[in-house]
Write a structure and sequence with these properties.
Mean pLDDT: 93
Largest sheet: 3 strands, antiparallel
Helix content: over 70%
Low-confidence stretches: none
Shape: rod-shaped
Strand order of the largest sheet: 1-2-3
Order of helices and strands: EEEHH
Structural class: alpha+beta
Number of helices: 2
Number of strands: 3
Radius of gyration: 32 Å
Strand content: 15-25%
Length: about 120
């Protein structure tokens, strides 16, 4: 794999299923190479599983497989965001309740101190 870089665009030569491609992108050359390697490994897995398939069919199956994985990750991400929002809301409620309890505790401490003062002064009972 070779790399050229001009005006913040990376250009990388990569190999996927034995064919060389020149890829241009805004990401770093290392990132582009990693993505190409990921795609190549995925395509090779399909090729090993079904060696009689044409390259075009391997690519179509590979794209569908990767799209399926992406879709599932996006769905999971959406659910995680919802869960996070619920947890954040619960946390805020608990924090608010905690603050109320702290205030009540301070009030009770003050009342207790006043009660002890009254006992000391003999003003009770």
């Amino acid at each position: 794999m070779s790399i050229e870089n001009s005006s913040n665009k990376s250009e990388v030569k990569v190999e996927i299923l034995g064919k060389e491609y020149k890829i241009k992108g805004n990401e770093s050359p290392e990132y582009i190479k990693n993505i190409a390697s990921f795609v190549n490994e995925h395509m090779k897995e399909i090729q090993e599983y079904a060696p009689s398939l044409s390259t075009n069919r391997i690519i179509i199956l590979g794209v569908l497989n990767l799209a399926d994985k992406l879709y599932k990750v996006q769905e999971m991400n959406g659910k995680l965001k919802e869960d996070n929002n619920k947890l954040e809301s619960s946390f805020k409620k608990i924090l608010s309740e905690n603050n109320k309890l702290k205030e009540q505790n301070m009030t009770l401490k003050e009342e207790y101190e006043e009660f002890l003062d009254l006992i000391e002064k003999g003003e009770l009972g």
